[in-house]
Specification:
- The protein has about 110 residues and is an all-alpha fold.
- It is about 60% helix and about 0% strand.
- It has one domain.
- Helix 1 crosses helix 2, helix 2 runs antiparallel to helix 3 and helix 3 packs across helix 4.
- It starts with a helix and ends in a 28-residue tail after the last helix.
Amino acid sequence: MNFWQSLPYVVGGSLIWEFLGETKPASSIDFYTTTLGWLYLGEVIYRLTDYAWNYPANNQYPIIGKVTGSLINPVAGINRFIFGKKIPFTKSSLTPVSFQFYIGSNHPLTK
């Protein structure tokens, strides 16, 4: 499935959680936060797993890519191990991933 085809599943899962999983009444802000947060987080996890498993530079040591992808996305790792289901290599698998980490203060300097 692509990004838009998976949207109804995320919305459905969020509705199930809001109405059946919580003990308090459902609120609209929780629904939006859960839906949009998991929609974007799921896409990021999928792309990182795809990168770990399929990026050609990772083929020098394929076990590292397989383990890393399985740690990022354990359900996909289990499906790959038990059922042989892999994330197929596509054009987006070639998208490089870069990380930036910042440490600092978020306080403006005032006089």
